[in-house]
Amino acid sequence: MATALILLQALSLVSSTILSRADRITRLPGQPRVGFQQYSGYVTIDDKKQRALFYYLAEAETKPISKPLVLWLNGGPGCSSLGVGAFSENGPFRPKGSVLVRNLHSWNQEANMLYLETPVGVGFSYATESSSYEGVNDKITAKDNLVFLQKWFLKFPQYLNRSLFITGESYAGHYVPQLAQLMIQYNKKHNLFNLKGIAIGNPVMEFATDFNSRGEYFWSHGLISDPTYKMFTSYCNYSRYVSEYYRGSVSSMCTKVMSQVSIETSRFVDKYDVTLDVCIPSVLSQSKVVNPQPQQVGETVDVCVEDETVNYLNRRDVQRALHARLVGTRKWAVCSNVLDYEVLDVEVPTINIVGSLVKAGVPVLVYSGDQDSVIPLTGSRTLVKRLAEELGLRTTVPYRVWFAGQQVGGWTQVYGNTLAFATVRGAAHEVPFSQPARALVLFKAFLGGRPLPGEF
């Protein structure tokens, strides 16, 4: 019996090795030589309806066997973790013309980075029936992501007992806690996931608090006038506007207020990065829910002439190298054009789920790029402080600056041993894109369970 069991385990390992080898990337077009392995491909999460999620794995640059596994999820809902996270933020490469250049602050210096295009209908993820793109919501997405991980571990059993962290940004403030909650529940019976922590950047955690901090942010940064600030906070705050907008019944008052806000903030200021004079292409405008502004005639989403990432991922040779295919669409897009997501799920708070994770002993880091007006740091800081008070957590690291090299990287505060808040100085909504060096310092401290560096 024991011999049969050993033989079965050996056969399973051989089978999984064959599966993972089929997903190995020999070399991406235009890619510089590197010493780490890359994999990408599909995990079918529903055989009956042929629903499959696409992933990209960049193993750690050095000693991948001893490094943790980190799952990264972008938001939207409906935007790509491959195009935004991997190729624009914290992955090993960034497209530049016809080639790829190294990201000197890639997170795979510290971990094995797994990027998931979720839900089905996002990026290269697909379903053969278009009905699978309809009525998708947070509950469905969380379950699908759980099934993905279960099946992905069958391909990569060497990661089964590895420390696992879940990270993401924006609407991933819903995705990440909800997935972590399901993993904890699943572990009560099966003990599959070695979850060691979650980190969420500029996250949507509570609709009203997050969205309504925008008015104060605009005013304090000089983007709107005193009278408009009063209107924005007294007559039609942002949560009311979004609620009305997604119910198809924007009141005349909200129309008037938002029109004035739009005029004063100007369409020439990127709301995801209000101070840096840079060109942020549509690949980084990853939120459909948190910033729903109807386009003006003649205005385009792209403020740049060329979108490097979109061009790169739409190349046939690149898609072949990634083992990717387009199903039901002719073009890979940063944010899905086919997904019909239940946008009102944004009104359902996840801060309570974050609280349950902290109570379960899962370390949580909430971090904010301080130049983001879409999900401003003030809302996130308020929510984390309130959660700490509700859980009776004492401050263990008082509010202070943290350093990246010899410069202030931001500010931080830690509650108990499991809940931390940090800002990243000069960072936009997409922190690893706008402040890559500081983001890497933040990430390294998070993985190591250490406070952010103090004065040198």
Automatic annotation (TrEMBL):
Described function: Probable carboxypeptidase.
Upper taxonomic lineage: Eukaryota, Viridiplantae, Streptophyta, Embryophyta, Tracheophyta
Main location: secreted
Keywords: Carboxypeptidase, Disulfide bond, Glycoprotein, Hydrolase, Protease, Secreted, Signal
GO biological process terms on file: proteolysis
Protein name as annotated: Carboxypeptidase
Family of this protein: Belongs to the peptidase S10 family.
TM regions (residue ranges): none
GO cellular component: extracellular region; vacuole
InterPro entries: AB_hydrolase_fold, Peptidase_S10, Ser_caboxypep_ser_AS
Record's signal peptide: 1-16
Enzyme Commission number(s) from the entry: 3.4.16.-
A molecular-function term among this protein's GO annotations: serine-type carboxypeptidase activity
Compartmental location: Secreted
